[in-house]
Design goal:
Chain A: Keywords: Cell membrane, Membrane, Transmembrane, Transmembrane helix, Transport. The complex is a heterodimer. By secondary structure, chain A is an all-alpha fold. Chain A has 14 helices and no strands. Chain A folds into two domains: 56 residues; 218 residues, MetI-like (MetI-like fold). Chain B has two domains: 288 residues, YVTN repeat-like/Quinoprotein amine dehydrogenase (Methylamine Dehydrogenase, Chain H, 7 Propeller), CATH 2.130.10; 224 residues, MetI-like fold, CATH 1.10.3720.10. Chain B contains 17 helices and 30 strands. Classes of the chains: A mainly alpha, B alpha+beta. At the A-B interface, helix 1, helix 2, helix 4, helix 5 and helix 6 of A face helix 3, helix 4, helix 6, helix 7 and helix 8 of B.
Chain lengths: 299, 637
């Protein structure tokens, strides 16, 4: 679907180029255009108010916030960030490890089953695929509590596995769908040629299918990792040890746990917790958006 | 010819039904005894001593007729019957008492500290005590009750037990260690349990059993070599050995009694109402006595209950075997039928695809175990009073009935309606306007730039953003009140989240200006996919911008609208993240939603059946929405 939108955008541009040549910059900066730009700027600023407020407040002390609310931080309290980091780094490391672990599992499982559903025929294929499809209709609210009981009975609560397995089990359904629709677009002749040359099935999968599917796997990885990183309710329910807790829950408890009363430090912690997301989005925003719109239009 | 399997089946069914020996079960109740704290059986099995929470110790004969009762100053913590007929009673009143066969007091020893646990060998040569906040086992003389020595352990003691002959002593400490000592008090083995130790016992041949709060009985001996662990259904309250060590009796908190053999194999299990509070065998291991938390004593004839359990297990095994044979027969018949129709080729296909199934196996194991099973379990248990590991009783639709009378759910439904209406407006209108604005930018670079700028807010984790908004609403240092003051509306300043009248609206306002990234991208992609010729020709016909939006954009975005409406509905019904972090449902019940009530029912009140019923109800609503949506799509196609 995304490629389609791209070509649509492409088909618009020649007209625009034509206009540009006709009217030059003036056409670009006509009154309605400027109005649109101003409106959009206002909206963007409004959207970013909480983030800007966070950044400014993260450099203030309590006295600065109370005494001079509207002033910029002077002097800027950079050691707020140090204090925040020492209290939440553990949660961040946990979250990142869980996110990477769960996403790696999702990629592995989804690529295999996506490939099989896309390119293989075998008895029971439709039935199995319907079973996965049906699972997408089950909302999390139905399974939340029974899942907790199940993981608890299996002795998995309060271990990293409760996050990783839950992330893998839930994420692979969507992942299989994405991979299946992507991989059915890869021409089968490629595999046939390799097989005639004597390549084994496993070799075909790892040397042809996986490299050709890297974009969709990247999409999947990023979506899953962001999802696990942002998850709040499930870790809150299943993890008790502070040393295993994730950052989403950690942010809500670390002030009490470390006796932090400085609001600046709290805001610094929020800012620090955004760093992994900033990194992953700066590399993979394109893939994330692709996954989001693709998921939206497939459903 | 077809008859042969049926005859065989009937035969094994008959064999399985041969009744075991009649169950010899007896019980009596002690009025007002409360918790049974301890039990002791005399060497010949003719008398049973019972310690009660009501500060009394009782002596019964093996048929349950009372012989005498004696009173202590506080809760009786331990009783021990010696082979010469002496009854030792320890109590929280800091005394250890000894009575003769008829109830006459032999001696009374003041130990200065509350006695927490008492254990004695049958002949009385070894009597050890655990006193409150003590790190030493106290050894007491049988004839005078005087302390004759102590065995230092080194950490706070909790429980002690002695084997019948006095050869072995096992002591548990509150730091989750069990110490196996010989009769001189020298340490043979130190065992580390994985949770709080609730009870200990040791057999004549030095096998020690430790019952823990993690629903386990751990076995070990003096070399630490036997290291098996037995699972129970709830926290273990007591363990006992028969003297030969071949039988282990266990009671747990949800009223289950078990008998295991010395290797941890379960021989028998039974359940009473109430909590199981103590188990003891007689010397030969023929009778098991057990106590409850409400003063009842049960007596089980070990041999017959084990036989009965074994014959029941045999019956079960035979039924399973019968079912297996039946299944095989049916499959053979089916194969025969297939062969007649010449359809056996499907099996060749399945066999050929074996590696494909192998490849799909991990995926489907996860799907079945971690997705299907919980979903079905939730549907099933919504009809039950669900106590995992304990009693789960069928209550029909009572959970659902309770739901419609639950004031929090009623309030939550009202709130949910408000949240859904505002949520739909928030999800559709701002995103649509923004998408139109971006779409109408001439510069493609600016379009891309703004699209990226709007997605930039994704870099803050959702929880952090909610916490920032919570701070923005702060009555004193919050941005919102400060802005109001700045523009001269200081009188409007308010504890937005603390006032039941504004809290829900404050939550709704979170995320202003409500430009959802997914919504924006969906609309934007939708606009881009509208064929340009359509708009160009409309322009040529003289249509203005408003006309183009109304007559071309909106109708052609129908699919996007439907998708986003469904997604928003499903999302809002399930979502309680924000409310839980920002207000926790308060103040009072002003921001409750059904999903939050579900979470609280499960976590705060441990009411899992009720929580499942709430989950099922929300699932049904979501299912209805999805089905209606699919119907609508079909009619349109």
């Amino acid at each position: 679907m995304y490629t389609e939108t791209d070509t649509a955008a492409e088909s618009v541009s020649p007209v625009r180029k034509l206009r540009k040549n006709e009217g030059g910059l003036i056409k670009y900066l006509s009154f309605p255009q400027i109005t649109i730009i101003v409106l959009l700027c206002v909206l963007v600023i409004l959207m970013l108010v909480p983030i800007l407020f966070m950044i400014v407040s993260s450099l203030k002390s309590n006295a600065q916030i109370l005494g001079n609310f509207w002033g910029l931080p002077s002097p800027a309290k950079w050691n707020n960030y140090g204090a925040a980091f020492t209290s939440i780094w553990r949660y961040m490391v946990n979250s990142i490890l869980y996110a990477v672990g769960a996403s790696a599992c999702v990629i592995l499982l989804s690529s295999i089953s996506g490939y099989i559903f896309a390119k293989k025929s075998f008895p029971g294929k439709e039935l199995l695929f319907m079973m996965m499809l049906a699972m997408m209709m089950i909302p999390g609210v139905l399974t939340l509590i029974p899942s907790y009981v199940l993981y608890n009975n299996l002795g998995l609560t309060n271990t990293p596995w409760v996050i990783i397995i839950a992330g893998a089990a839930g994420g692979q359904i969507f992942g299989t769908f994405l991979c299946r629709s992507f991989m059915s677009g890869i021409p089968s002749e490629l595999f046939e040629a390799a097989r005639i040359d004597g390549a084994s099935e496993i070799r075909v999968f790892f040397q042809i299918v996986i490299p050709l599917s890297l974009p969709i796997l990247a999409t999947l990885f990023i979506m899953q990792a962001v999802g696990v990183y942002n998850d709040y309710i499930w870790p809150l329910l299943t993890i008790r040890d502070s040393s295993l807790q994730v950052v989403a829950v950690g942010l809500t408890v670390f002030t009490k746990q470390f006796g932090i009363t400085d609001m600046g430090t709290q805001f610094s912690a929020y800012a620090i917790s955004s760093i992994p997301l900033i990194l992953i989005f700066s590399f993979g925003m394109k893939y994330y958006i692709q996954g989001m719109t693709q998921g939206a239009l497939k459903m | 010819m077809r008859k042969a399997p049926w005859i065989f089946l009937a035969l094994i069914l008959l064999l399985g039904l041969v009744p075991g020996a009649a169950l010899a079960k007896d019980h009596w109740s002690i009025e007002g005894a409360g918790n049974i704290t301890s039990l002791s059986v005399s060497e010949d099995g003719s008398r049973v001593a019972v310690g009660g929470h009501n500060a009394k110790a009782f002596l019964y004969d093996s048929e349950g007729s009372p012989i005498y009762e004696v009173e202590a100053g506080n809760v009786v913590t331990g009783v021990a019957l010696l082979s010469n007929g002496t009854l030792l009673v320890s109590s929280d009143d800091r005394h250890l008492y000894a009575y003769d066969e008829t109830g006459g007091k032999l001696w009374d020893s003041d130990l200065k500290r509350q006695v927490k646990s008492l254990a004695a060998s049958q002949d009385g040569s070894t009597i050890v005590l655990v006193t409150q906040r003590s790190k030493d086992l106290i050894v007491v003389d049988q004839n005078s009750g005087e302390q004759t020595g102590s065995i230092p352990i080194g950490s706070l003691l909790k429980e002690v037990s002695v084997s019948g002959s006095g050869q072995w002593i096992v002591a548990a400490t509150s730091d989750q260690f069990a110490y196996l000592l010989d009769k001189d008090g020298s340490l043979m083995y130190k065992f580390s349990a994985d949770n709080q130790i609730q009870a200990v016992a040791v057999s004549e041949n030095g096998l020690a059993a430790v019952g823990t709060a993690s629903n386990k009985v751990e076995l070990f001996d003096k070399n630490g070599s036997v290291n098996s662990s037995i699972n129970t259904r709830d926290i273990v309250t007591d363990v006992a050995f028969s003297s030969d060590g071949e039988r282990i009796g266990v009671s747990d908190l949800s009223g289950n009694y078990y008998i295991f053999d010395g290797r941890g194999k379960q021989l028998w299990e039974s359940k009473i109402t109430g909590e199981g509070r103590g188990v003891q065998f007689d010397r030969e291991g023929k009778t098991l006595y057990s106590g409850t938390n409400d003063g009842r004593i049960f007596r089980y004839d070990v041999g017959s209950v084990i036989d009965k359990a074994a014959s029941k297990a045999r019956l079960n095994a035979m039924l399973w075997a019968a079912a297996g044979v039946l299944a095989v027969v049916l499959i053979l018949l089916y194969l025969h039928y297939l062969k007649k129709r010449n359809r056996l080729v499907i099996f060749r296909q399945i066999w050929k695809s074996k590696y494909i199934y192998l490849g799909l196996a991990p995926t489907f194991i996860l799907v079945f175990v971690f997705l299907y099973y919980p979903a079905l379990s939730g549907l099933f248990h919504s009809l039950y009073d669900w106590q995992p590991g304990g009693r789960t009783t069928f209550v029909g639709l009572a959970n659902f009935e309770r739901m419609i009378h639950d004031p929090y759910v009623i309030k939550g439904m009202g709130n949910l309606v408000i949240l859904i209406i505002t949520g739909l407006i928030k999800a559709i209108i701002p995103a649509l306007i923004t998408a139109e604005l971006i779409f109408h930018l001439r510069s493609k670079r600016l379009q891309y730039g703004f699209r990226t700028a709007f997605t930039a807010s994704m870099v803050i984790p959702g929880v952090a953003l909610l916490l920032i908004w919570q701070n923005l609403y702060d009555p004193n240092v919050g941005l919102i009140n400060n802005v109001l003051e700045l523009i001269g509306l200081g009188s409007w300043a308010h504890g937005w989240l603390g006032d039941p009248n504004t809290a829900l609206w404050a939550i709704i306002f979170i995320g202003f200006p409500f430009i959802g990234i997914l919504q924006l991208l969906v609309f934007y992609a939708g606009l881009l996919s509208i064929p340009n010729e359509l708009i160009e020709s409309a322009k040529i016909d003289g249509a203005n911008l408003w006309r183009i939006i109304r007559s071309i954009h909106l109708p052609l975005l129908g699919g996007q609208f439907k998708f986003l409406i469904i997604l928003t509905l499903i999302g809002i019904i399930q979502d309680f993240n924000g409310i839980m972090i920002v207000t926790g449902g308060g103040p009072m019940d002003s921001t409750y939603v059904p999903a939050l009530q579900m979470y609280y029912a499960a976590t705060k009140f441990n009411d899992l059946g009720y929580a499942s019923a709430l989950g099922v109800s929300m699932f049904l609503v979501i299912l209805a929405i999805t089905v209606v949506n699919m119907k609508l799509i079909k009619t349109e196609d």
